[in-house]
Design brief:
4 helices, 5 strands
């Protein structure tokens, strides 16, 4: 019988949302169990949100993890990882392990609205005012 990680099955992608725009992205076949495990592993309080689900192997889901990390970074989050022994927490550059396949996946993903980067209108206003002033000067 093949091991669980090689079986195509429903897998959930999730984010652990921490204070100060920090996030950890993971995947699991059982969100409740994984939330309980993370509660023991992380010293910081967090909110777990489901990002989506897919059917595939663990390796397929890991491709989505990379894509979600990239999306989180694009939304202004500090993306966190843990060492395999859970001893160290460190920030990663989510663009570093991207390839064309992962970019294609990321282009289909939308960060949850309540955690999305706020639209900043003032740079557009400043740009419009500068352009208008340049136009009047000529």
């Amino acid at each position: 019988m093949p091991r669980e990680k090689y079986l195509p099955r429903k897998r959930y992608l999730y984010a652990l949302m921490f204070d100060h725009k920090r996030v950890y992205i993971g995947q699991s076949i059982d969100l409740g169990r994984r939330n309980r495990e993370h509660s023991c592993d992380w010293a910081w309080p967090f909110k777990m949100i489901m990002l989506g689900s897919m059917i595939g192997t663990r390796a397929d889901a890991e491709e989505y993890e990379y894509a979600w990390r990239y999306r989180a970074g694009r939304e202004g989050f500090q993306v966190l990882c843990k060492s395999p022994d859970n001893a160290d927490i460190f920030e990663i550059d989510p663009t570093q392990r991207m390839d064309s396949h992962r970019y294609r996946i990321a282009s289909t993903l939308r960060w949850p609205a309540e955690h999305r980067r706020k639209f900043r209108w003032w740079p557009w206003l400043v740009a419009a005012l500068v352009l208008a002033a340049l136009h009047l000067i000529r």
